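Limitations

Structures in this collection are predictions, not experimental determinations, and the ligand pose is part of the prediction. Treat each record accordingly. The example that follows, with fe (ii) ion as the small molecule, is included so readers can see exactly what is and is not provided: the inputs are given verbatim, and the output is the predicted complex.
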Amino acid sequence: MLDLLIRNVQTSTHEEPVDVAIAGAKIAEVAPRIEAPAGQTIEGEGRLLIPPFVDAHFHLDSVLTRIPNSSGTLREGIDNWAVYKQEQLSVEDVYQRAARYCEHAFKMGIQAIRSHVDVCDPQLRGAQALTQLKRDLSDRIDIQLVAFPQDGYYSAPQVRELLIAALDMGVDVVGGIPHNEPMYNQGTASLQELLRIAQERGLPVDVHCDESDDPNSRHVETLAALTKQMGLEGRVTASHITATAVMDPYYVSRKLIPMMAAAGLHVICNPLINIHLGGHFTHPRHRAMAPMRDLLAAGITVACAQDCNEDPWYPLGNADMFEVARMGAHVGHMMGLEALHKVFETVTVNPARIMDLPGYGLTAGCRANMVLLRADSVVDALRTSATRELIIRDGVIRAGTAAVA
Ligand code: FE2
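Predicted complex:
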């Protein structure tokens, strides 16, 4: 006997409506018509069923701080965050804010978050709070943490030890910020050291890379070259790379993107934050987001992520991955029917691949994690930020309003 049967739903991967059968915490079968007794039945009535949203780039340690940023620049955000860290940050403060956000994110259909955590703090308060939260919320959200040296790997002598200590505490991914190092060659050196640490420990890498309007900020080239030289293909992610929007198009299309593809580099764009923080100082103003369409066309796995929610870098945000995807579609010139489906993948299957989430998807054998939406197609859902009618995690209905028999 099945535990749960969801009848007559659209999916992004099947041409016709299907039934989805769930036994225990796994999907048992997906087929046009399933005749089997089930403990609970949901009549989908042609609505869209999706695997959960995956937000592969976020900052849970600064979420909901509502720190103002009057210039709207990355620099003021980093400076104001430094003051907050010194004057107000505590383990309890981080834990409570992040837990409150995750509760909301879960109801918005997100079930996996990769969060950077600032490791330049000598007490590692963010890492303490978030490694605990990761354990406490594992029944709802898969949290992956990145050891992120916000002020720079070479900003202070102890940062290396702090980053290693955070990894020892259970932080999962090695982070970096080469464009924020004092000298350009220290950006290069930081990538060499960070990739070596990741290689020694068998960990993935996710670097804030070239989050800048400077066309000469070309650390992503170094990241791609080192990834290939060190045999880390498929394990390294370049987040942001907004400088690519102002680099020479010949260099980007003929050299850089082919290098990135050959190195199996993943890319995470953060459309809302990129378009808000970037482009302040060029004239005319440019679109400060990586060329998502060209990256995808080259076979690179690209995710769109939220980055910030009510923090020193972004005063808005609502854990709505449709909002993130919609901004990506606009800025990336991806409004064709096929293109919109590809954009939808940037907040679902692509970030799941980047985070290497086991059993992700809507096929037999996958984890029974899914979201039923009040929409009849992917485009309709994207257009309306469709209401999340049911949230299912490991085969159990955890939130929502749809009728269950
Ligand atoms: Fe970020």
